[in-house]
Amino acid sequence: MRILFVASECAPFSKVGGLGDVVGSLPKALKAQGHDVRVLTPRYGFIPGHMFELHSAPLGVPLGHGEIWCGILESRLPDSDVPVYFLRNDEHFGGTDVYLGWGGDLFGLARFALLSRAGFQLSRSLNWIPDIIHLHDWPTAPAAIMLNTVERFAPFDRTASVFTIHNMAHQPRFPKEGIEVMQVGWSEYKPDGLEDFGELNPFKAGLYHANMLTTVSPRYAWEIRTPEGGAGLSHVVEFRAADLVGILNGIDEDVWNPETDRYLPAHFDAHDLSGKARCKTALQKELGLQVRPSVPLIGVISRWTAQKGTDIIASALDRLLELDVQIVMLGSGDPQLEAHLRHRSRFGGGSFCAWVGYNEPLAHRVEAASDLFLMPSRFEPCGLNQLYSQRYGTLPIVRSTGGLDDTVEQCQPLTGAGTGFKLYHLSPDSLVDTVAWAVSVYRDKPDLFRAMQVRAMKKRQGWSVAAKAYLDVYDWALQRKRA
Ligand code: ADP
Ligand code: GLC
Fold it and tell me: pLDDT digits over 285-338, tens only?
């Protein structure tokens, strides 16, 4: 099967969150199962272009009332022969921001309408027509509408679309004149298309137009059918429920592997955790924490937003530290939270450190060094850090929502089972209670804690299972399209 991923992020070249991780690793797993998979993504200003091969012919991409001329650079996903095509147009993508905010401005729509349409033009110019175009969240949702309108003819009349929902909450809206930017025709300005309360909502149109829908965990697939989880579109998800499948994300085991991780000062596996203890000491030194091997070290790595419950951690922070633990927070986001946590870090007394910013190597070191990992999300479509944590023997403490509920097994003191600790109600009180429970297991029941670590580390979380499930979805999409 020929599969084209069109996406706004692709790790390691560009990554704002987990969407980038998924686009950087799922294609490799599909390729390993014998399929011809390729990725199209923007060449943002921060991606060094000189390393990649430049296609000689420029690509003309229809947009608005004319055509935009773009370059195509080519590379490969690391450790694979999956081609990645970078769409180069400095006016639209030359800056350093992947996203430009929450909509409003037609330029924000034009950038990703350009990327979406470029998928078709690139396929034509390569004379490589995909069976499936696989789209990710609102930025490339326009390609699903284009496939049903301006691009419905040969050679794309047998191509089907799959739209993966990574996060229903990310729904920028644009002025209705954006219809002309996208060239899809005013007939698409309707409630069961692009129109949403007088504006354009590409996410909504993606939900209506794609041949099949997926989201990144079974539990989230159910949650988004409810008004609480559907971010204003639960009725649309409900309407398409028969075409929606929840498939858990995997992890890239080449990158997130404590036995080989290139960012770690020492390596370890489920049978021998002595390397993990060395990672802990090294991180305590690196971040100016007291070097205490036996203190429970708790890691947090996330965007500091309401979604991730960072405000709840901030409210509970003093009470958490009274449990005699150390806490390391790596992230950035809400400016008030950043200021508060930075300030708190200055008076951390060797037990609290907030590292503000994005730092991939440090993220690996925090995962490896910590004993526990905190992820009290308000909602979480899948979540990747709790998966990395389990792989690194770092037991996650999570709110039982979305993919967190699907991927973490609650601690069972009687049977010794479980891979983490779940809280059901989100509040500073219940967070403190659950952390206190986890800390008591760490201190008072080391055998149980160790058994949970082994169980977590031995879980198979690679992409091969998910890849098989996506292949089924691709088949169903083709059946719907070609029926
Ligand atoms: P989301 O996509 O909602 O942000 P995920 O858990 O799916 O959440 O993915 C987040 C990804 O981004 C993970 O790979 C995580 O390690 C990474 N990440 C988040 N914040 C940072 C940071 N400050 N530094 C390094 N990596 C980060
Ligand atoms: C989104 C979600 C996150 C998920 C990621 C990758 O950013 O917030 O839960 O893991 O996409 O699918």
Answer: 999 999 999 999 999 999 999 999 999 999 999 999 999 999 999 999 999 999
Q: Which domains does the chain have, with CATH numbers?
A: 2-250+463-482 (3.40.50.2000), 274-457 (3.40.50.2000)
Structure tokens at 100: 């430009």
Ligand 1 in contact with 244 (CB < 6 A)? no
Pick the atom of ligand 2 nearest to 381's CA. 9
Distance CA 481, CA 483 (A): 6
3-state secondary structure of 341: helix
State the pairing for strand pair 36-42/212-215: unpaired
CB 209 within 8 A of CB 145: yes
List of residues 6+ apart from 210 with CB closer than 8 A: 135, 141, 144, 161, 162, 163, 243, 477
Does the C-beta of 137 come closer than 6 Å to ligand 2? no
In this structure, the chain runs to a length of 483
Rg (CA), the chain: 23
Which of 474, 391, 403 has the alpha carbon at shortest distance from 30?
Answer: 474
Whole-Å CA distances, 361 to 68, 263, 264, 296: 38, 6, 8, 22
Considering only CA atoms, which residue is closest to atom 10 of ligand 2?
383
* Closest by Cα among 426, 433, 391 to 405: 426
